[in-house]
Design a protein that fits this description.
The chain has about 270 residues and is mainly β. It has helices at about 20, 115-125, 130-135; strands at about 15, 25-30, 35, 40-50, 65-70, 75, 85, 90-95, 100-105, 110-115, 145-160, 175-180, 190-200, 200, 205-215, 220-225, 230-235, 240-250, 260-270. It contains three helices and 19 strands. Strands 1, 3, 5, 6, 9, 10, 11, 15, 16, 18 and 19 form an eleven-stranded mixed beta sheet that branches. Strands 2-4-8-7 form a four-stranded antiparallel beta sheet, with no helix packed on it.
Length: about 270
Protein backbone atom coordinates (compact mmCIF):
# COMPACT_ATOMS: atom_id res chain seq x y z
CA UNK A 1 0.00 0.00 0.00
CA UNK A 2 1.31 3.47 -0.88
CA UNK A 3 0.42 6.22 1.54
CA UNK A 4 0.13 9.82 0.29
CA UNK A 5 2.19 12.34 2.24
CA UNK A 6 -0.01 13.90 4.92
CA UNK A 7 0.33 15.80 8.17
CA UNK A 8 -1.09 14.56 11.47
CA UNK A 9 -4.55 15.57 12.71
CA UNK A 10 -7.12 15.90 15.59
CA UNK A 11 -10.94 16.78 16.18
CA UNK A 12 -14.22 15.34 17.61
CA UNK A 13 -17.65 13.91 16.59
CA UNK A 14 -20.44 11.41 17.16
CA UNK A 15 -22.45 9.20 14.79
CA UNK A 16 -24.60 6.10 14.74
CA UNK A 17 -23.04 3.37 12.58
CA UNK A 18 -24.73 0.64 10.60
CA UNK A 19 -23.99 -3.01 11.24
CA UNK A 20 -22.52 -3.46 7.78
CA UNK A 21 -19.87 -0.84 8.47
CA UNK A 22 -18.91 -1.61 12.04
CA UNK A 23 -19.18 -5.31 12.84
CA UNK A 24 -15.84 -7.16 12.80
CA UNK A 25 -13.87 -4.01 12.02
CA UNK A 26 -10.55 -4.05 13.79
CA UNK A 27 -8.57 -0.83 13.69
CA UNK A 28 -4.80 -0.54 13.36
CA UNK A 29 -2.36 2.32 12.89
CA UNK A 30 0.26 1.29 10.31
CA UNK A 31 3.23 3.36 9.12
CA UNK A 32 4.66 2.86 5.63
CA UNK A 33 7.84 1.68 7.37
CA UNK A 34 8.76 0.84 10.96
CA UNK A 35 12.48 1.73 10.79
CA UNK A 36 12.96 5.40 9.96
CA UNK A 37 15.90 7.74 9.47
CA UNK A 38 16.27 10.71 11.81
CA UNK A 39 14.28 13.79 10.75
CA UNK A 40 12.54 11.85 7.96
CA UNK A 41 8.88 12.21 7.00
CA UNK A 42 6.69 9.22 7.88
CA UNK A 43 3.36 8.40 6.21
CA UNK A 44 0.76 6.39 8.14
CA UNK A 45 -2.59 4.79 7.41
CA UNK A 46 -5.50 4.15 9.75
CA UNK A 47 -6.67 0.67 8.77
CA UNK A 48 -10.32 0.00 9.66
CA UNK A 49 -11.18 -3.58 8.78
CA UNK A 50 -8.49 -6.28 9.04
CA UNK A 51 -4.75 -6.06 9.60
CA UNK A 52 -4.12 -6.04 5.85
CA UNK A 53 -7.19 -4.34 4.38
CA UNK A 54 -9.13 -1.22 5.29
CA UNK A 55 -12.84 -1.40 4.53
CA UNK A 56 -13.87 2.16 5.28
CA UNK A 57 -12.20 5.41 6.23
CA UNK A 58 -12.70 7.40 9.44
CA UNK A 59 -13.95 10.96 9.05
CA UNK A 60 -12.08 13.78 10.71
CA UNK A 61 -14.96 14.55 13.08
CA UNK A 62 -14.65 11.04 14.60
CA UNK A 63 -11.23 11.84 16.08
CA UNK A 64 -10.51 12.84 19.66
CA UNK A 65 -6.72 12.73 19.70
CA UNK A 66 -3.72 12.14 17.49
CA UNK A 67 -0.41 12.16 19.30
CA UNK A 68 3.27 11.63 18.60
CA UNK A 69 5.49 10.76 21.54
CA UNK A 70 9.27 10.80 21.18
CA UNK A 71 12.47 11.98 22.86
CA UNK A 72 11.28 15.61 22.71
CA UNK A 73 8.01 14.75 24.48
CA UNK A 74 4.40 14.47 23.34
CA UNK A 75 2.91 16.49 20.50
CA UNK A 76 -0.83 16.63 19.85
CA UNK A 77 -1.38 17.33 16.19
CA UNK A 78 -3.90 19.51 14.38
CA UNK A 79 -6.57 17.70 12.34
CA UNK A 80 -6.48 20.06 9.40
CA UNK A 81 -4.49 17.72 7.13
CA UNK A 82 -6.34 14.50 8.03
CA UNK A 83 -7.44 12.80 4.82
CA UNK A 84 -10.13 10.15 4.47
CA UNK A 85 -9.63 8.87 0.93
CA UNK A 86 -11.95 6.04 -0.10
CA UNK A 87 -11.56 3.13 2.31
CA UNK A 88 -8.49 4.43 4.18
CA UNK A 89 -7.55 7.43 6.31
CA UNK A 90 -4.07 8.94 6.03
CA UNK A 91 -1.74 11.32 7.81
CA UNK A 92 1.98 12.02 8.03
CA UNK A 93 4.45 13.49 10.44
CA UNK A 94 8.14 14.38 10.49
CA UNK A 95 10.26 12.44 12.92
CA UNK A 96 12.93 14.00 15.09
CA UNK A 97 16.11 12.62 16.60
CA UNK A 98 16.90 8.98 17.28
CA UNK A 99 14.60 7.05 19.62
CA UNK A 100 11.60 4.78 19.87
CA UNK A 101 8.47 6.74 18.93
CA UNK A 102 4.83 6.07 19.79
CA UNK A 103 1.97 7.40 17.68
CA UNK A 104 -1.65 7.12 18.75
CA UNK A 105 -5.15 7.81 17.43
CA UNK A 106 -8.23 7.87 19.67
CA UNK A 107 -11.75 7.92 18.23
CA UNK A 108 -14.94 9.34 19.63
CA UNK A 109 -17.77 7.23 21.06
CA UNK A 110 -20.13 5.68 18.51
CA UNK A 111 -23.36 3.67 18.71
CA UNK A 112 -24.42 0.60 16.75
CA UNK A 113 -27.65 -1.41 16.78
CA UNK A 114 -27.35 -5.17 16.21
CA UNK A 115 -29.72 -8.10 16.06
CA UNK A 116 -29.06 -10.92 18.49
CA UNK A 117 -27.53 -13.03 15.71
CA UNK A 118 -25.31 -10.21 14.47
CA UNK A 119 -24.10 -9.46 17.98
CA UNK A 120 -23.32 -13.12 18.73
CA UNK A 121 -21.34 -13.50 15.50
CA UNK A 122 -19.41 -10.33 16.27
CA UNK A 123 -18.58 -11.50 19.80
CA UNK A 124 -17.29 -14.81 18.46
CA UNK A 125 -15.27 -13.44 15.55
CA UNK A 126 -13.74 -10.41 17.26
CA UNK A 127 -12.53 -12.03 20.47
CA UNK A 128 -15.10 -11.25 23.18
CA UNK A 129 -15.81 -14.79 24.50
CA UNK A 130 -16.78 -13.79 28.03
CA UNK A 131 -19.76 -11.69 26.93
CA UNK A 132 -20.87 -14.43 24.54
CA UNK A 133 -20.67 -17.00 27.35
CA UNK A 134 -22.73 -14.73 29.63
CA UNK A 135 -25.43 -14.35 26.94
CA UNK A 136 -25.61 -18.14 26.56
CA UNK A 137 -25.79 -18.61 30.34
CA UNK A 138 -28.55 -16.04 30.73
CA UNK A 139 -30.60 -17.18 27.73
CA UNK A 140 -30.11 -13.86 25.89
CA UNK A 141 -28.72 -15.05 22.54
CA UNK A 142 -31.80 -13.75 20.69
CA UNK A 143 -31.80 -10.34 22.36
CA UNK A 144 -30.99 -7.41 20.08
CA UNK A 145 -28.59 -4.83 21.53
CA UNK A 146 -27.23 -1.35 21.11
CA UNK A 147 -23.49 -1.08 21.73
CA UNK A 148 -21.51 2.04 22.58
CA UNK A 149 -17.89 1.71 21.47
CA UNK A 150 -14.59 3.55 21.11
CA UNK A 151 -11.37 2.52 19.36
CA UNK A 152 -7.86 3.54 20.43
CA UNK A 153 -4.87 2.52 18.34
CA UNK A 154 -1.12 2.94 18.60
CA UNK A 155 1.96 2.12 16.57
CA UNK A 156 5.65 2.23 17.43
CA UNK A 157 8.55 2.99 15.09
CA UNK A 158 12.29 3.05 15.59
CA UNK A 159 14.03 6.23 14.46
CA UNK A 160 17.77 5.87 13.95
CA UNK A 161 19.68 3.31 16.00
CA UNK A 162 19.32 4.56 19.57
CA UNK A 163 16.45 3.08 21.62
CA UNK A 164 14.61 5.28 24.12
CA UNK A 165 12.22 4.77 27.04
CA UNK A 166 9.20 6.56 25.60
CA UNK A 167 7.65 3.26 24.55
CA UNK A 168 6.47 2.70 28.14
CA UNK A 169 4.55 6.00 28.45
CA UNK A 170 0.74 5.77 28.48
CA UNK A 171 -1.18 8.21 26.29
CA UNK A 172 -4.15 8.19 28.66
CA UNK A 173 -6.61 6.61 26.24
CA UNK A 174 -9.68 4.78 27.66
CA UNK A 175 -8.13 1.48 26.49
CA UNK A 176 -4.42 1.02 25.90
CA UNK A 177 -1.64 -1.54 25.55
CA UNK A 178 1.59 -0.57 27.33
CA UNK A 179 4.78 -2.45 26.41
CA UNK A 180 6.87 -3.58 29.39
CA UNK A 181 9.98 -3.81 27.24
CA UNK A 182 11.02 -2.07 24.07
CA UNK A 183 9.88 -4.24 21.13
CA UNK A 184 12.73 -2.82 19.06
CA UNK A 185 15.18 -4.53 21.41
CA UNK A 186 13.56 -7.94 20.77
CA UNK A 187 14.72 -10.70 18.46
CA UNK A 188 12.89 -13.68 17.03
CA UNK A 189 12.06 -16.17 19.78
CA UNK A 190 11.88 -13.51 22.49
CA UNK A 191 8.89 -12.89 24.76
CA UNK A 192 7.07 -9.58 24.48
CA UNK A 193 5.35 -8.49 27.69
CA UNK A 194 2.71 -5.79 27.92
CA UNK A 195 0.04 -4.42 30.25
CA UNK A 196 -3.65 -4.04 29.38
CA UNK A 197 -5.18 -0.81 30.69
CA UNK A 198 -8.80 0.36 30.74
CA UNK A 199 -9.46 3.85 32.08
CA UNK A 200 -5.86 3.90 33.28
CA UNK A 201 -6.16 0.78 35.43
CA UNK A 202 -4.70 -2.70 34.79
CA UNK A 203 -7.29 -5.26 33.66
CA UNK A 204 -6.84 -8.86 34.76
CA UNK A 205 -8.01 -11.85 32.72
CA UNK A 206 -8.41 -9.68 29.61
CA UNK A 207 -8.72 -11.75 26.43
CA UNK A 208 -6.01 -10.58 24.01
CA UNK A 209 -5.37 -11.53 20.38
CA UNK A 210 -2.15 -11.18 18.42
CA UNK A 211 -0.70 -11.96 15.01
CA UNK A 212 0.73 -10.16 11.99
CA UNK A 213 2.76 -10.65 8.83
CA UNK A 214 6.17 -12.21 8.31
CA UNK A 215 9.06 -10.29 6.77
CA UNK A 216 8.15 -11.97 3.46
CA UNK A 217 4.48 -10.98 3.72
CA UNK A 218 3.13 -14.31 4.91
CA UNK A 219 0.39 -14.47 7.50
CA UNK A 220 1.32 -14.90 11.17
CA UNK A 221 -1.60 -16.90 12.51
CA UNK A 222 -3.73 -15.05 15.03
CA UNK A 223 -3.55 -16.52 18.51
CA UNK A 224 -5.01 -15.54 21.88
CA UNK A 225 -3.83 -15.17 25.44
CA UNK A 226 -5.08 -13.56 28.65
CA UNK A 227 -3.57 -11.02 30.99
CA UNK A 228 -2.80 -12.07 34.55
CA UNK A 229 -4.23 -10.53 37.72
CA UNK A 230 -1.94 -7.50 37.31
CA UNK A 231 -3.04 -6.96 33.73
CA UNK A 232 0.22 -8.32 32.30
CA UNK A 233 0.16 -10.47 29.18
CA UNK A 234 2.94 -11.97 27.12
CA UNK A 235 3.39 -13.37 23.63
CA UNK A 236 6.23 -15.17 21.90
CA UNK A 237 7.74 -13.37 18.92
CA UNK A 238 8.09 -16.27 16.52
CA UNK A 239 10.05 -14.45 13.84
CA UNK A 240 10.76 -11.18 12.04
CA UNK A 241 7.86 -9.21 10.66
CA UNK A 242 5.10 -6.78 11.61
CA UNK A 243 3.11 -7.70 14.71
CA UNK A 244 -0.14 -6.57 16.29
CA UNK A 245 -1.63 -7.01 19.77
CA UNK A 246 -5.29 -6.12 20.36
CA UNK A 247 -8.16 -6.45 22.80
CA UNK A 248 -11.78 -5.41 23.23
CA UNK A 249 -12.98 -4.73 26.76
CA UNK A 250 -16.79 -4.96 26.86
CA UNK A 251 -19.15 -4.59 29.82
CA UNK A 252 -22.96 -4.62 30.12
CA UNK A 253 -24.66 -1.33 31.01
CA UNK A 254 -27.44 -1.12 33.59
CA UNK A 255 -30.01 1.65 33.37
CA UNK A 256 -28.44 3.35 30.36
CA UNK A 257 -31.19 4.70 28.06
CA UNK A 258 -28.99 4.58 24.94
CA UNK A 259 -26.95 1.38 25.06
CA UNK A 260 -26.86 -2.16 26.46
CA UNK A 261 -23.08 -2.65 26.31
CA UNK A 262 -20.01 -0.44 26.36
CA UNK A 263 -16.80 -1.52 24.63
CA UNK A 264 -13.32 -0.06 24.51
CA UNK A 265 -10.92 -1.30 21.83
CA UNK A 266 -7.13 -1.09 21.84
CA UNK A 267 -4.44 -2.18 19.40
CA UNK A 268 -0.67 -1.83 19.09
CA UNK A 269 1.51 -2.47 16.03
CA UNK A 270 5.30 -2.76 15.80
CA UNK A 271 8.01 -4.58 13.84
CA UNK A 272 10.77 -7.04 14.70
CA UNK A 273 13.86 -7.65 12.57
Amino acid sequence: MKYPARRLALVAGLAVATAALAVAHDMFLKPDRFFVAENASLDLALINGTFTKSENSIARNRLIDISVLGPAGRTRIDTAAWKADGDTSFFSTRMGGAGTYVMGVSTRTNLIKLTGKEFNEYLESDGIPDVLAARKRDGELDRAVTERYQKHVKTMVQVGETRSEHYATALGYPAEIIPLENPYSLKAGATFRFRTLVDGQPVGNQYVQYGGRTANGGRIEMRATRSNAEGIGEIRIGGPGTWYVKFINMAPLKGDPEADYNSKWASLTFAVR
